[in-house]
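Subject: Protein record for review, amino acid sequence with backbone structure tokens
How to read it: Take the token row as a discrete description of the fold.
Enclosed: The protein record, placed directly beneath this head.
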Amino acid sequence: MIAHDVLAALTPVVEVLERLGVMYHIGGSIASSAYGIARSTLDVDVVADLRPQHVQSLVEQLQPAYYIDADAVRSAIRERASFNVIHLASMIKRAYLQRWASRLGIADLLKRALVESGL
């Protein structure tokens, strides 16, 4: 798996989150490698502020290129847990983590909002 594969698998997911207006943060080994600490695994963790009203559109826009289970997404939102999205062409997996109750998740969102606004 090369960086191009990861980017090709991640870009459509980010585009959907952007269209839905969902705040998100990318982590995992891909983010670690981008900031200079290379890791041998290339997984992508996406922390996203998904709401129940996002589920149907998220699933419809990602299928059939990705494996994504609407019931798993709803359960993860309800339980503040994670679910998987798998890019079928590359089998690259993204783990979506629902962590908005933690102070760390809120701090990351605020930091991102400040950076994006140029403050």
Q: What stands out?
A: Helices lie at 3-20, 28-34, 55-62, 70-79, 103-117.
